[in-house]
């Protein structure tokens, strides 16, 4: 499905455009931590998807100083509200390639959203960027919709002695008189909400190299607690690689902020936790949840927020899988306990189309996980886990919809048990995803 569908627009109508695709973001930024001042140039490689006289980018709260375009004649630009609109001298054809450079700066602040502040946020000492779902325009001009994935080069010059992280691989670090320039390259297609910067007084602690390098970036005071919580992280990574297929990125970094955070959040190749999550009972559950997003959300990214259960249902089910594998309560027992709990709550949410205000409703997480458990019980373990690996393999680095998952599940069922099983799988998924009433779990 193209990014420019009506349902996409209905979920976040003010963000992004289906008329363009950004192929690459080159961000050359300087940041002074104490006054919280960000200045720099963002150069976007933009492909048009239709004939157009204007293009609109998302940028909130910062001041645009200059715009230059190669590939078309720019007559004027205006930055009003959270939109930067460029007007050209004549129609630009469908499929044209433009290079758009925006010099901008100011004091970045998080954007308001129904789910609280999102985007660039100052910490006690440093910065955290957690943009899900709509915070990316708080720090760079972008086409802010989840299905429009791009590669990135992020150069950040920041006063010493701060540790500076962005998504992707560190390709250069240059010391200047009082500042250091850190250059990260992200070669995997990445959604704007997963682009990130983390700045703090951190040290980097290796957790292991197999099957991919894993590390925690943490303030010294929280190092021991982080290592305790993450003692089995390599085992977790190996298990997820077995059940979900190959890990999609070059490595994985957990960041722990000195500040307390309400919830952990995923970024590309990275997750961000608050110091409070280290001691929490919840820590053991949140670590597998966040890691699972590297497959479900980051490699396979929803084409529209409508399909959010493909992120959160899968990450929540991953918590149950790890519990069972690591010697805790079994997935079946956790599923039955949650089924009983949800049975007592009002069921008015349609998982496959929850409405824009309810994309982070707890029912998306728990009913999403239960949907997968119902599917597992219908298909059998072997076919279910083959389906998960086929799903992550077929759509690796792409964008996905619920319809695509249902088609693949039906195909897998047909191979396993013919049209009768395919029909049963379809009925199970319709009941769990498209109807508000809580179905019974198969086999109960
Ligand atoms: Zn999640």
UniProtKB/TrEMBL annotation:
SUPFAM superfamilies: Leukotriene A4 hydrolase N-terminal domain (SSF63737), Metalloproteases ('zincins'), catalytic domain (SSF55486). Its cofactor is Zn(2+). It catalyses: Release of an N-terminal amino acid, Xaa-|-Yaa- from a peptide, amide or arylamide. Xaa is preferably Ala, but may be most amino acids including Pro (slow action). When a terminal hydrophobic residue is followed by a prolyl residue, the two may be released as an intact Xaa-Pro dipeptide. Keywords: Aminopeptidase, Hydrolase, Metal-binding, Metalloprotease, Protease, Zinc. Its EC number is 3.4.11.2. GO terms for biological process: proteolysis. One of its GO terms (molecular function) is metallopeptidase activity. Residues 235-409 form the Peptidase M1 membrane alanine aminopeptidase domain. Residues 23-194 form the Aminopeptidase N-like N-terminal domain. It is an enzyme of class 3 (hydrolase). Pfam families: Peptidase_M1 (PF01433), Peptidase_M1_N (PF17900). InterPro entries: Aminopeptidase_N-like_N, Aminopeptidase_N-like_N_sf, Peptidase_M1, Peptidase_M1_aminopeptidases, Peptidase_M1_dom, Peptidase_M4/M1_CTD_sf. The keyword Protease applies. Belongs to the peptidase M1 family. This is Aminopeptidase N. It comes from Georgenia muralis.
């Amino acid at each position: 499905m193209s990014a420019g569908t009506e349902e996409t627009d209905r979920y976040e109508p003010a963000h992004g455009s289906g008329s363009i695709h950004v192929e690459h973001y080159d961000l050359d930024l300087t940041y002074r931590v104490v006054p919280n001042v960000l200045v720099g140039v963002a150069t976007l490689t933009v492909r048009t998807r239709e004939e157009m006289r204007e293009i609109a980018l998302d940028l909130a709260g910062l001041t645009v100083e200059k715009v230059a375009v190669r590939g078309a004649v720019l007559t004027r630009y205006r930055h009003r509200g959270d939109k930067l609109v460029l007007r050209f001298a004549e129609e630009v054809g469908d499929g044209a390639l433009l290079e758009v450079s925006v010099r901008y700066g100011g004091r970045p602040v998080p954007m308001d959203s129904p789910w609280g502040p999102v985007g660039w946020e100052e910490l006690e000492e440093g910065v955290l960027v957690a943009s899900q779902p709509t915070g990316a325009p708080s720090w760079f001009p972008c086409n802010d919709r989840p299905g429009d994935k791009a590669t990135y080069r992020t150069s950040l010059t920041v006063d010493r002695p701060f540790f500076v992280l962005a998504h992707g691989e560190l390709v250069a670090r240059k010391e200047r008189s009082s500042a250091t320039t850190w250059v990260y390259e992200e070669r995997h297609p990445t959604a704007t909400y997963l682009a990130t910067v983390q700045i703090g007084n951190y040290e980097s602690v290796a957790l292991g190299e197999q099957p991919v390098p894993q590390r925690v970036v943490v303030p010294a005071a929280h190092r021991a607690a982080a290592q305790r919580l993450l003692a089995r992280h390599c085992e977790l990574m190996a298990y997820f690689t077995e059940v979900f297929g190959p890990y999609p990125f070059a490595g994985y970094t957990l960041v722990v902020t000195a500040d307390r955070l309400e919830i952990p959040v995923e970024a590309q190749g990275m997750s961000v936790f608050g110091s409070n999550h280290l001691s929490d009972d919840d820590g053991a559950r949140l670590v597998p949840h966040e890691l699972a997003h590297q497959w479900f959300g980051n490699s396979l990214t929803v084409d529209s927020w409508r399909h959010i259960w493909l992120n959160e249902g899968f990450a929540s089910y991953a918590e149950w899988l790890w519990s069972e594998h690591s010697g805790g309560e079994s997935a079946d027992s956790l599923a039955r306990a949650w089924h009983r709990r949800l049975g007592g709550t009002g069921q008015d949410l349609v998982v496959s189309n929850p409405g824009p205000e309810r994309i982070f409703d707890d029912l998306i997480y728990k009913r999403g996980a239960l949907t997968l458990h119902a599917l597992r019980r219908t298909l059998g373990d072997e076919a279910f886990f083959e389906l998960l690996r086929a799903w992550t393999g077929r759509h690796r680095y792409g964008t996905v919809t619920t319809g695509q998952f249902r088609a693949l599940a039906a195909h897998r069922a047909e191979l396993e048990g013919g049209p009768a099983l395919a029909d049963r799988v379809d009925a199970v998924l319709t009941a769990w995803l498209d109807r508000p009433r809580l179905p019974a779990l198969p086999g109960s």
